[in-house]
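Final report, closing paragraph on structural work. Over the funding period we assembled a curated collection of sequence-structure pairs, and we close with a single example.
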Amino acid sequence: METTHRTTDQQKPADQRRRELLEAADRVVLRDGPKASMNAIAAEAGITKPILYRHFGDKGGLYRALATRHTDALLAALRAALDAPADRRRRVESTLDTYLASIEAMPQVYRFLMHPAEASHQAEQSFDVGRHSAPLLRRMGEELGQVIAERIDLGPGGEAQARIWGHGIVGMMHAAGDWWLGERPCSRKELVHALADLLWGRLAEAGDREGGPAF
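Its predicted structure, as stored:
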């Protein structure tokens, strides 16, 4: 008689098990948004909550892992939009559209990462995300500032100026996107065009760095 061997949690490679648990967490977040809890995620993964804690330490550890997972994917998409073969205005619009399309496609994930107030009234097992959402925006601002510094010649003090622009643009995208996602006062295309118009001052006039990739 053939014996079937099931792979236990301990027998699976740690990175594989971690990936599976994050995928289970993603499914719960897509369903429940900011109301996602450790209990629900453990149930979705078919494990007990102590096992979930063993892999991520606590609720904050799991939140940070999910935030890194989604932020990495978004930053890769934004960099691809910035590096696309098109003129500067088209790339700026493409970058704005990439961000807005991302939050539109997964609004529950966005709310989970950025709307701690919605979860604050939930039971103790809900995620306290308020301590973690601001660093996500700071990371995006630093990344965008670095891209701007690499691609645009802003003259003396250009690196500091690029960081200011990076954080400012991210702040604008976040605030405008949050408002738009909640109220839908216009189409995504109209919002992209209006935001690009707002940016189209000194950015349009600055020269590209000699020998570097064009922006």
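The CA atoms of residues 137 and 171 lie 8 Å apart. The chain has eleven helices and two strands. We thank the funder for supporting this effort.
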